[in-house]
Amino acid sequence: VQLQASGGGLVQPGGSLRLSCAASGRFFAINAMGWYRQAPGKQRDLVASITSGGVTNYADSMKGRFTISRDNAKNTVYLQMNSLKPEDTAVYYCSAQIVVGFVQYDYWGQGTQVTVSS
């Protein structure tokens, strides 16, 4: 099972980016999916999460600017980021709780760099 993230890059303050993360491999189900971020010298923090039923949760600083969504048919989670600020610069990681056989495991994507700078 693998998670492949994409969509990072360099954007100016106030701009937008959309991150994608697709799960592949053999598994029974995907439960919660989410995005985390880690800035240099800081811990990895939750950005947003979404359950298999579509219930979302956001870190306070992202509310109103970021939107998490998922396409269960494509095993993919998205993060639409608007009104980006320099402090949003970080490596963004996707995560997923994936059921393999009868056991749920936590998987992580490889990380995608988001840089907000003029």
Q: What is the gist of this entry?
A:
This protein is mainly β and 118 residues long. The protein has strands at residues 2-6, 9-11, 17-24, 29-38, 45-50, 56-58, 66-71, 76-81, 90-100, 103-108, 112-116.
Structure notes:
This protein is mainly β and 118 residues long. It contains no helices and 11 strands. The protein has strands at residues 2-6, 9-11, 17-24, 29-38, 45-50, 56-58, 66-71, 76-81, 90-100, 103-108, 112-116. The strands form 2 sheets. Strands 2, 4, 5, 6, 9, 10 and 11 form a 7-stranded mixed beta sheet that branches. The model has no long low-confidence stretch (mean pLDDT 96).
Secondary-structure topology with pairs:
Elements (H helix, E strand, L loop, with lengths): L1 E5 L2 E3 L5 E8 L4 E10 L6 E6 L5 E3 L7 E6 L4 E6 L8 E11 L2 E6 L3 E5 L2
Parallel strand pairs: 2-11
Antiparallel strand pairs: 1-3, 3-8, 4-5, 4-9, 5-6, 7-8, 9-10, 9-11
Which features would summarize this protein structure in a list?
118 residues; mainly beta; 7-stranded mixed sheet; 4-stranded antiparallel sheet; elongated
Radius of gyration: 14 Å
Task: List low-pLDDT spans.
Answer: none
Mean pLDDT: 96
Largest sheet: 7 strands, mixed
Overall outline: elongated
Structural class: mainly beta
Along the chain, the helix and strand elements come as EEEEEEEEEEE
- Helical content class: under 10%
How far is it from the N-terminal to the C-terminal residue, by CA? 37 Å
- What proportion of the residues form beta strands (DSSP E)? over 45%
- Oligomer designation: single chain
Give the helix tally.
0
User: What's the total count of β strands?
Assistant: 11
